[in-house]
Specification:
This protein is α/β, with parallel strands linked by helices. The protein has helices spanning 2-7, 11-25, 28-34, 57-75, 91-101, 106-112, 114-124, 129-135, 154-169, 192-197, 329-338; strands at 83-86, 144-150, 181-183, 188-190, 207-212, 219-225, 236-239, 244-250, 253-258, 270-276, 305-308, 321-323. The chain folds into 2 domains: 2-172, Rossmann fold (3-Layer(aba) Sandwich); 207-338, Isoleucyl-tRNA Synthetase, domain 2 (Alpha-Beta Complex), CATH 3.90.740.10. The protein has a 5-stranded mixed β-sheet with strand order 5-6-9-8-10, with no helix packed on it. Strands 11-7-12 form a 3-stranded mixed β-sheet, with no helix packed on it. A two-stranded parallel ribbon has the order 1-2. Strand 3 (181-183) and strand 4 (188-190) form a beta hairpin.
Amino acid sequence: MAEEIAGEKSESAKRESEVLNFWSANNIFQKALSKDAPKGEFVFYDGPPFATGLPHYGHILAGTIKDSIPRYKTMRGYHVPRRWGWDCHGLPLENQIEKELGLATKRDIETLGVSTFNEAARKAVLRYSKDWKAIIPRFGRWVDMDDDYRTMDASYTESVWWAFKDLHTKGLVYEGFKAMHLCPRCGTTLSNFEVAQGYKDITDISVTVKLELVDEPGTFLLAWTTTPWTLPGNMAAAVNKDFAYATIQQNDQKYILAKDRLPTIQGEYEFIKEFSGSELIGKSYKPPFSYFADHNIKGKEKAWKVYHAPYVTLDSGTGLVHLAPAFGAEDLELAQKEGIPIVHHVDKDGFFVG
């Protein structure tokens, strides 16, 4: 009985086969493309999937949504070309080839030879293409998978170069900095999507560091950070000018922090005074490390000073934050605005550098 049920198609499955066979036998998709289009052409940009695996629920969901737009525009009188593509770039394919070739690091790839590695990647690109071509039409999507393009094709690469050159000629390209996540094993940056794939909640450490004011020896700003490894690259400190700050004394040293964060101070202390955060802006402090203090870096006159940053909050920490502009989007934005130096003290392998 079980074998009979397994071999019997449901009514919906039968209808699916009938519709797909009708479309195929009568070239319905091709006819939709060749019909009159009084409103002209509608260009639909369809981000291609990675060519490294089989389609999953996410592809089917996104593909169904994408399919509805060209269909609607076609019915409204537009000609909408729909050409399938393959995304051959990025880490997914490269990581897969590394595993197959037994490579562990970027240096292993260089030892093997970049051209040899690239050729292995090219051969692996379309190993799943037959499976995609069998599955995509099954959920009713109309797209030309025979005249497909690949981002690794020279014609595609040249078109990207052409577009970039045109943008550059029009003065629409500029050189700048952006804080990016980086994988020390791969030796390359990671997209926000790739970083989010490994997201999980953990208990992180935090550090409060003393920054001694230049004009008030023995008085220290208490700067807070959850990334102590960035402290050697400290270039500034930030406060919120709208917050109330306080000076307290413990033993023979004075400390400055946000008034609302005083309950976090351990041990007894003497309250000295309260003042606005705006009074701290522009003050200079001694660098926590001397690594870059002895270097002739661009914008050095703007380094190791206190600046206003609206993103400083009272939810945690001390109400003062340490800034290492090369390692945080908000820090970098503030540094570019104020002219604070941007220095790199960690290389692509994750090691400190001088």
